[in-house]
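Let's practice the habit of predicting before peeking. Look at the sequence and jot down your guess about where helices and strands might fall. Then scroll down.
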Amino acid sequence: MDTIIRTKTLTDDVVEQLKSFIEVETLLPGDRFPTESELCKRLGVSRTVVREAIARLKARGILRSKRGSGVFVDRQLDQESNTPLAPPNLAELLEILELRLALEVEGARLAAKRGTASQMVELSTATKIFEQRIGDWDRSVEADVHFHLTIARATGNSQFETLLAEMSQRVLPHRQGLVSLFKDQGARQAQNEKIAAEHLVIAEAILSGDSEGAERAMRYHLEGVRRLYIDWDSPAAIIGVSSP
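Done guessing? Here is the structure:
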């Protein structure tokens, strides 16, 4: 049996450190979280890494932002894996996806035009990390968010990353619940292999500076996400490896 090498990124480490900070400081829901600047000094990492770590904790529902007030603890860590998922609201998910299409299709185009050399390295790494996690649904969902946030960052416009992180916060718990849509581990892995292939096409277009190709590839990818959401809402839709 092949061994899957799990690549741990600096952001992964910072996520764990922030969770430990919440535990050690016994922060409760409603407590204010340190600012990005404070965390950068405390942890000795860049603002980019801190932002992505916070975005992941927001996506898990552990932290939340209050516009103009800062970041706050939203729920305790021991509730992270035990809180049942709310039933999906398909209309809301599709509305958010419409925003993602408008945001990320343009974002992919801009990333191909504006991305720096270091951001292209980050994108290449993010693509590989998802590929290495295709057999682990929960970890692959996080890696998918990381991939899309990396592209948003490469636009050179911080608002792309901020808006996408906020949308991920609302959608990610439901995406983790998508596991119930698949018949077995093989079906889940087949879906992730499809996503990995689409990520690779997007990344290759961006890395080569092909803005139109990046735009097309991202649109195709997100339209596939839309079809998956609609399948999830169908009571009869349980996807197997051999499903059309």
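How did you do? The two ends are 28 Å apart (CA to CA).
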